[in-house]
Structures are given as C-alpha cells and as structure tokens.
Amino acid sequence: MSKSPEGGGPARPLWWWERRRSALLDIGLAALAGLECAVGAYTMVGSRLHWGFPAAVTAAVLGALAGATLVVRRRWPAVPVVVALVFVPGLFGVVLLVVSLYSLAATWEWPSRRRRVVGLSALAFVESLGMVLFSFLNTEAQPGETLPPTWLFVLLAVLVAVGLTVPPVVTGLYVGARRRLVESLKDRAHGLETELDLLAEQAQERARRARLEERTRIAREMHDVVAHRVSLMVVHAGALERIVAKDPEKAQQSAKLMGEVGRQALNELREILGVLRMSETVDGHLDSLAELPRLVEQSEAAGMRVTLTVSGTRRPFSTEAEQTAYRVVQEGLTNAHKHAGGAQVAVLLAYVPNGVRVAVVNDCSGGGEKVVLPSGGNGLVGMEERVLALGGTFAAGPDEGGGFRVEAVLPSRLAVQAERLS
C-alpha cells in the first residue's frame, strides 16, 4: 500500500483502487484501448462504409469512450467485456477485448460466478470466430489467383479466436486464484498470530498462577518447619529461665535440647532450600510416620504430657502422604504448646482399611503455666489444603470432652503397593 506524501501512514484508497499505481495502469490501458477503438471506428465508418466525415468523427468519439470503459474494469468487470463485444464485429478493439476478458476472469470470484465468466468468454469466442471467418470467406480472389481451401480459413479463424479469448481468460483465472490464495494465507497467518498471542497470554497466566501456588506451598512448608521447632525452643527457653538458678544441671539439659531442636530446624530449612534449588536433601532426612516417636519425645522433653498410640498393621505410604500426616501431627503438637500448656495430649496413629488416620487430642485440664506464642492462624488452614489435595479428609475443632482435636485421614490408594513375586 502506498504511503502518504508526508511519509506517515498508508495513503487513502482512490475510489475502487487500493493503490495509485493501479489507477495509473488502468488509465493507461484505457487510453490505449480508446485510441485503438477510435482509430478502428473512424476507419470503418469513413473508409469502408463511406458515411462521411461527421459520422466518422462521431464513431471515433464513441470508440474512445468504449476504450475508456477499462477504467472501471476492477469495479465492474463485465462492463468493458459487453462493450468489447459490440466492437468485435468491426474487427477492432483487440486491446479492449483481451484486457476486459482478463479482468473478468481475475476479479470475479470463482467458482461462485463461473457461469457468467464462462458465458461471456464463450460469447466473445463465438463472436470473434464468426467475424474472422466471415472476413476470410468474403475475401475475393484477384485475377489469376487461387484462394486457399475453406478448411484452412476455418482453421485460421479458430486459431485467431482462441488467441484472442483463451489466453487472457486462463491467465486471469490463474492470477485470481493465486491472489485469493495469498489473501487466505494472510488471513490464516493473522488468525494464527492472534491465536499465538492468546496462547502466550494464557501461558503467562498459568505461569503467574504456578508462581502463586509455589509461593503458597513454600510458605506452608516454612510454617510447618519453623513453627513447631521454634515453639519448642520458646517453651524450653521459658523453662530454662525459671530453673537456671534452682537446678543448673536440668537447665543445662534444656539448653542442650534447645540446641538440638535448633539444629533440626536448620536442617529442615536446608532441605526445603535444597528442593527449591532442584537438588537432593542435605542429609537424606525425610519427615515421615516413622519419625513420629522422635517428634513426640521432643514435645515430652519440653514438658508436655504426651502419649503416642499406634494401631493396625504398618503399611508404607507415598512420600507426600507420609510427610503430610507427619505435618498434621506436628501442627497439632504446636497448637497444644501454644494454647493448652499443661494439658494431657494424645497422639494417635492408626492404619485402617481405608487408609491411615492421625489425630492429636488434648484435654481441657491444662492448669500449667502457658507460654504465649505468636500465631498467624494459617497452620490448620494449610494442613487442610494439603490433606484435601491428596483426596483425604481433615477436621479440627473442639472435642466432645471439652478439649481440642486435630484429625486427618488419608486414603488407602496412597499406600505403596508391594511388588508382586514373579
């Protein structure tokens, strides 16, 4: 598309021409066809018919106007074809006929208007054949000359008619089909570009959601690791402050236990960071159901009255399932440290037919000194999300006896199936 003289955006279309050079081409062809038709009409009227000079001039003007119809060949392609058929009997207007037939075949949609294209083209062929054959057969032999046989005149007339009509029609059909193919490919490319933009936006949205989910998962893991260990350290620190002067030996044991708990917290943090770096864990430690006795011992060492009860036949579960069950117990013990200091706490682990069940239950008889710990209120929410994501059930709330109960059941489909013996 042509540019504006100022060098800005595309130039505005001129009437039915999309480009100015197309308008110049049509005007040039119209001038050439008009000149040929004017000369042919003047010659026929003045020399053959002998109608006088005024009639010859009038015929020349009409011929020029007929040739000028090529200006509208892109807008109304049938008009110059019909005008050319009027001048074919005079054996002139060849430029008008050839260009108009080409334009008719190239600009009209095929095959939706094939009947009109074929009909006008066939009419032009028959008329050209008839007039050329009529001209050959009316040729008079000069004295002493012998005219060629009639079949030769017929053959020459057919060749001339074919040469005037078939090549422009075939060329126009090819150019029109090629033009429509290019336009369809452009439309398809634009459609694909739009689709790719949409897919890119969807990919960005999925990436944003994945980042958000990953942040949530990391925050949940950090909470699980830090909250329990730090709660134990705070409880030990409070106890250490009270007994350091009365019982130095016990204070030393509490300080040693605080150091052990702190190292465990650091190891678990390193494991999480290692996963984030797509590397293996630091020391192969994995929070699982086999670690529950150690977890209970740590809480007991912090002064909690806690018991662990295991029932059912031990079955291995998937890594994610065992880690989730471990975190549920850990969160339940952490809440007991925060809100039920001195209460009796029971940890239950049961391998049942429909899966594995873990529960942390504390009574309401806690009369000991409570240690106030900060809480974000997200621990139980995160636990519920993790359990539900695995297809399990989760419940947390007041118990029938007045205490508090945290319970989760993970389905049996998460169990690791033993390999069958061959």
TrEMBL record:
Keyword entries, A-Z: ATP-binding, Kinase, Membrane, Nucleotide-binding, Phosphoprotein, Transferase, Transmembrane, Transmembrane helix, Two-component regulatory system
Record's keyword annotation contains Iron-sulfur: no
Gene Ontology molecular function, alphabetical: ATP binding; phosphorelay sensor kinase activity; protein dimerization activity
Domain of life: Bacteria
Record field: catalytic activity: ATP + protein L-histidine = ADP + protein N-phospho-L-histidine
SUPFAM superfamilies, per database record: ATPase domain of HSP90 chaperone/DNA topoisomerase II/histidine kinase (SSF55874)
Classification via Gene3D superfamilies: 1.20.5.1930, Histidine kinase-like ATPase, C-terminal domain (3.30.565.10)
Nucleotide-binding keyword on record: yes
Residue stretches spanning the membrane: 23-44, 51-72, 78-105, 117-138, 150-176
One Gene Ontology CC term in the entry: membrane
Domain Signal transduction histidine kinase subgroup 3 dimerisation and phosphoacceptor: 214-278
The EC number(s) this enzyme carries: 2.7.13.3
UniProt-listed InterPro entries: HATPase_C_sf, Sensor_HK_TwoCompSys, Sig_transdc_His_kin_sub3_dim/P
Protein's UniProt name: histidine kinase
